[in-house]
Amino acid sequence: MKKVLLYPCGGVGLVVSTVTRLASLKATEELLPEQLELLDMHRCQRGAPEEIALLENNPVIVLDGCKQQCGSYFLNMLGIRPAARLYTPAYIAKYKLKPGKNRAQLEKEGQELADAMAREAVVVAQGILKGPYLFKKQKVRRKKLPCCDYRLDIEESLAYDEVNPRVHRPESMPPLPNMEKTDSLEVL
Amino acid sequence: MVRWATYRVNEELLPKKTLLLCVPAFYRGVPEDLVMVEKNPTLVVDCHEESCGSFLMQQIGLKPAVRLFLPELMEVWGITPGRERQALDEEGRKLVAKLSEEMAAVARSLLGDPEYTFSQQKIKAPFEGKVGNWKANPARALKYIQIRPGLYRPKDMPVLPLEKPSFRKEEGP
């Protein structure tokens, strides 16, 4: 693989959305700039051809901010299975870091939380990039998108398996190299 | 920039009088995000020609009360968006200050005018989403009319207080 996409949940209501956004920006701008790229969900939904091609042709790591898991839902709505999902509440629990109260600009703990997510996103991405990782191109569903189904259990729908308490992948997607039987950050 | 400006309006300039529509939560079907957009007039800010914000409204069959179009506003103000995404640089701070004041002024004009008659809208049901047609223009589909550079409303939506001659007089030259 040459490129991996990061998709932060994209919300505006909760501070955790800012955590996922900052984690994705740190990872793509500072940690692995050549091989990571941000996915813009608004442009996908709008139908931007190059954004849809990115999504169809590359594995995507989604960063869900809260239990609503809107990031995973959005990909599922488009018929796309993420290569991996990072779940912010699990990082809050593991590192005992609070996202804080400032949605516009995270406080120190929130930034540390974003750092932790960015680092693990990079570990997941590096595993995929180095392989072996058998990625098959996917196809974006363009019509009759199942929107606004609040009752849908998204973890069940995507059949998420736990790779570690913070990282999940759909059981039908390839195993994540160097991730499946170990805790990546402790190895680091 | 728009996100930062929106937080400023929601938290500092018009707290408790504005709600933020979270688009991912909307697609998820979080009930409060569906209800808020049906029951309240919506101000959409489009960052560029792609008009993703307007597209969402078009897709769900609702009309925004107002649309701000950032490229035209930036041209009027002579401000660029800056280059930083993780934190605001000097240019970004200027733009956020200016945009948030513009958004708040529009919202205040709606809130403060007893004659502004907004009727509740209803999301078309069953709502099945679709990926947009890239060649189509949401601004045209929503039949926007320009009130002044950067400020639009759909032709079929109520006249904005900002359009009335009396308001213009209060606003000054």
Characterization of the model:
The complex is a heterodimer of chains A (188) and B (173). Chain A is an alpha/beta fold and 188 residues long. Chain A has one domain (4-187). Chain A has 8 helices and 6 strands, in the order E-H-E-H-H-E-H-E-H-H-H-E-E-H. In chain A, helix 4 links the parallel strand 3 and strand 4 (84-87). The longest helix of chain A has 23 residues, at 108-130. Mean pLDDT of chain A is 94; it is low at 182-188. Chain B is α+β, with helices and mostly antiparallel strands and 173 residues long. Chain B has one domain (2-171). Chain B has 8 helices and 4 strands, in the order αααβαβαααββα. Chain B has helices spanning 2-13, 23-28, 31-39, 52-60, 70-77, 90-111, 138-141, 165-171, and strands at residues 43-46, 66-69, 144-148, 151-154. In chain B, strands 1-2-4-3 form a 4-stranded mixed sheet, with helices on both faces. In chain B, helix 1 (2-13) crosses helix 6. The mean pLDDT of chain B is 93. The chains are: A alpha/beta (188), B alpha+beta (173).
Helix and strand layout, with pairings?
The complex is a heterodimer of chains A (188) and B (173).
Chain A: E1 4-8, H1 15-31, E2 36-38, H2 41-46, H3 49-57, E3 60-64, H4 70-77, E4 84-87, H5 88-95, H6 108-130, H7 154-157, E5 160-164, E6 167-170, H8 184-187
Parallel strand pairs in A: 1-2, 1-3, 3-4
Antiparallel strand pairs in A: 4-6, 5-6
Helix pairs in contact in A: 1-6
Chain B: H1 2-13, H2 23-28, H3 31-39, E1 43-46, H4 52-60, E2 66-69, H5 70-77, H6 90-111, H7 138-141, E3 144-148, E4 151-154, H8 165-171
Parallel strand pairs in B: 1-2
Antiparallel strand pairs in B: 2-4, 3-4
